[in-house]
Amino acid sequence: MRFEHATRTAKGARSYQEDAAEVRADETRLTAALADGMGGHAGGALASGLACMFFVQAVAMSSAPDVGARLAEALDVANEAIAQETDEDPALAGMGCTLIGALFGPEGVEWVSVGDSPLFLVRKGEIVRLNEDHSLAPEIDKLAAMGKISWDAARADPRRHVLRSALTGTEIDLVDRSQRPLALHPGDVVILASDGIHSVSGADIARVATAAETADAAAEALLAAVEAVGDVHQDNTTVVVVRAG
User: Fold this and answer.
1) Is there a contact between 19 and 35 (Cβ–Cβ < 8 Å)?
2) Are strands 96-97 and 189-193 parallel, antiparallel or unpaired?
3) Residue 71's closest CA among 168, 176, 174?
4) Disulfide check for 244: which of 93, 178, 188, 233 has CB 3.0–4.6 Å away?
């Protein structure tokens, strides 16, 4: 199986960019990383850039016996890179980022993620999120499902975007890992994204990704869909689109 990929990013309504992404590919495998920074403009951008760069390098250099171990090792390397940077410059204390790291190969795709950046699979017009959301949004939605608060209150809760886990150079509270390779079929589209993508509904993401004939076209169309929403508070949006063929 071959993997076609494309990366696109937009600032949205922000005056700065805290997202980062990196891809490394050879004839049979592709490693992708995407991070959404936090902790102020300079710190967030630095953290996300470091995390992606060190993660992809660590996967390439790892001698771990299996993909899951390689991804876990690379996650630790990315987190340690942030720790070293904050040790050298205490003014950067508090910076961090989310991270999705995915490795595509003949067996399919495996991933590791921290934070709320989504990893989607689009197959035959249907979309599913593959990784866990480490923000407070799922916990708030559980309260609504139990009838403890209304759904309107849940959707409007300002705490929804508060992260329960992130890479900050300290112990990582929550990590999501694939348990086994997810087999991919020709035409499948996997999307790594920062949370700016949430301006677009899942149904529209699936429609756009399915209609596009290439990864480049899908990435362009996804950012166009975000822009078309016209959110005056639009966050940075970055996508890495990987299309199996």
Assistant:
1) yes
2) unpaired
3) 176
4) 188
Q: Which residues contact 76 (CB under 8 A, 6 or more apart)?
A: none
Res 41: pLDDT: 66
Which helix (DSSP H) or strand (DSSP E) does residue 105 occupy? strand 99-105
pLDDT, position 200: 97
pTM higher than the cut 0.90: yes
**Would you tell me the crossing angle of helices 202-211 and 215-229 to the nearest 10 degrees?**
140
Radius of gyration of the chain (CA): 17
pLDDT at 42: 73
What residue type is 25 in one-letter code?
Answer: A
Signed CA dihedral, 79, 84, 87, 93: sign only: negative
- 122 closest CA partner among 221, 4, 206: 206
For residue 109, what are the β-bridge partners?
104, 182
CA-closest candidate to residue 62, choices 52, 54, 70: 70
Q: Where are the domains of the chain?
A: 3-129+167-244
Please tell me the distance from the alpha carbon of residue 99 to that of residue 29, in angstroms, as a whole number. 20
Average confidence score pLDDT of the chain: 95
CATH number of 3-129+167-244: 3.60.40.10
Residue 180 makes CB contacts below 8 A (sequence gap 6+) with: 110
